[in-house]
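Aggregate trends can hide what the representation actually does to any particular protein. This step matters because it turns folding into a mapping between discrete strings. For completeness, the protein is quoted in full, as a sequence line and a line of structure tokens:
=====
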Amino acid sequence: MAKLSDQPVTADDLMPLALTSYGHFTSMRVDAEGRIRGLSLHLDRLSRDSREVFGTAVDPGRVRTLVAAALAEHSGPCIVRVTNYDPAVNLGRPADAREPELLVTVRPAGQLPPPPLTAMTIPYERDLPLVKHAGLFGALHARRAAQLAGFDDALFVGRDGLVSEGGTWNVGFIDTDGTVVWPQAPVLPGVTMALLQEQRADWKTTPVTVNEAKGMAAAFATNTSIGVRAVAAIDDQPMPVEHPLLTELRDAYLSVPGEEL
């Protein structure tokens, strides 16, 4: 289901977003009781990104109201996505897009944790990496290339040779000394990553080359839909998926209490 500012969305409403991809969003996992881990961080992201993309803030109370209304028509765990875009955006005059509206969509959530994934390193750097924007062509093209090569997804590598993030997820590593390592690179500041960093003190941020990534004791992907997902291989290098810290990280994430709308 989809609603734009609490009204049923039409094809005409979606056409500008489909034709320009000019907008930004956040996706939130809603548990069976209607609570959302990291809700405050998601709301902060929407407002921060809106100022960057449109020069306007997002009213968190409005987001809460619209999401609650959408969830009233849905039962069970789900993923709710809030997209902020201007239905009047024009390809030739994006500077005129100053009145964005909120599109709320809901889909069923998958089981946690999902099975391990395999990742293929691909040279790619996202535009405006700090913004969770709707311009996903490059990321999806990289994901497609990885899948055609027999992998589940792409792991991005910058022009400097450093690992950054996955197709739609942050990547983390477990070093041989048991420290959690987050790559130091321009990446989307993921909510799940932030929640894990709040839960554990034994983590560091440092540059990670591809060879260093393959030499780690374990690797994992994080986002709101998957929680903590083990990475079973990076290119042709198998990665352990039964490391005890992976279980601890999953448990740490699941222990975060959800916030009420």
Remarks:
- The two ends are 19 Å apart (CA to CA).
- The chain has a mean pLDDT of 95.
